[in-house]
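Exercise 3.2. Students should predict the tertiary structure of the chain below and write it as structure tokens, then compare their answer with the key that follows.

Predict this chain's 3D structure.
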Amino acid sequence: MRLRVGAVAVKELPETLTFKQGQTFFRELESCMNIERPCIVLDCSKVRAMDSSAIHLLLCCLEEAMKRNGDVKLSAVSTEAREILRLTKTDRLFKIYDTSAEATNSFYHRPTHGQHTPAHIATHETQGSSSEIAA
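Answer key:
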């Protein structure tokens, strides 16, 4: 199935992210957000660890995209950063892909039954009922 999607914006997160840097990054991203159904891929390849500023930035980006019926997906998240996302349960809010190309392509094609889905996404989908009850 092919989805109707405009351009997908791929933005690379900096290696370190203070609160002030996060604000600057978000302002730069706003031009990509101020459209109907924004499709954003945040490339996390330089990020080794996530702190509260980085997680706050991810959540702000997702919130703004969702207000416009869009989505934010993450790519190239390091093992260390994935662990922080898992511990904070933030990983449940994002689809995470190994590469920016995979994340970008996911906006254009909705997985059909039986089509390959990244392992962590399939795991969260099967556990969805328990997280929905807790929410």
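Discussion points: The first strand starts at residue 8 and ends at 12. Confidence is low (pLDDT under 50) at residues 114-135.
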